[in-house]
Amino acid sequence: MRLFDTHCHLTWKEEENPALPRIERAREVGVDRFICVAIDLENAKRCRELAAEHDDVFPTVGMHPNDVGSIGDLDSRIDALKDLAADPSFKAIGETGLDFFRDWAEPDAQRKSLEAHLDIARDRDLPVILHCRSAIEELLPILRARGEHTKGIMHCYSEGPEAVEELLGFGLHISFAGNVTYPKSTALREAAKVVPENRLLLETDAPFLAPQGKRGQPNEPAFVKFTLEALAAELGRDVAQMAASTHANASALFQV
Ligand SMILES: [Zn+2]
To answer: Which residue range is the domain that position 145 belongs to?
Structure first.
């Protein structure tokens, strides 16, 4: 069984939590593709370095909405993002999006950064990786107003089924993380039921959001297996077949 972790932060706090043992443990359970997602530009360069050492690791470039800071100096960082994104090593743009659960970055800076990421992804024909926390009512109108096909991923989907249809209509894939396994995540599991099999992806968002049974410890790409198993059971699908379909979806989207 081949597994694809479409979203992990292998280079986040690496000094405490080195990437290599986590990569190796994941390979042992069949993970053979890792999308190493950047949270800022320095981190993107480190993701690129790690990917250069491992054929199964692929980097992204972007600025996490919690890390976009203030709007005052955002233009220069967006320029730097554009420059860096010209490197064909990067397989996706992000993560970007909106996070109004935390107030670490100004909302206007988050919106402006999001639009810039969407432009770059469209211009380079790369998938965009979208983060959305306590902000779906703001994200949907932004995507609607653009009126274009958006190739990419609604990552760590955390809404009910209501928003799924419109997100799919924009062109997005929907990716589920460990939180879909939590007993209280009923709405999330309902949402998974309305995502067509050819638009469904799996991720860990490691080191965050360890699945049920592993909660309280750092998440890691090997645990994508638990999310796969839980989701397959919930949807009444065969585990191996769902591993294959999600792997194929991700391979086609990221072109890896
Ligand atoms: Zn993330």
So the answer is: 3-254
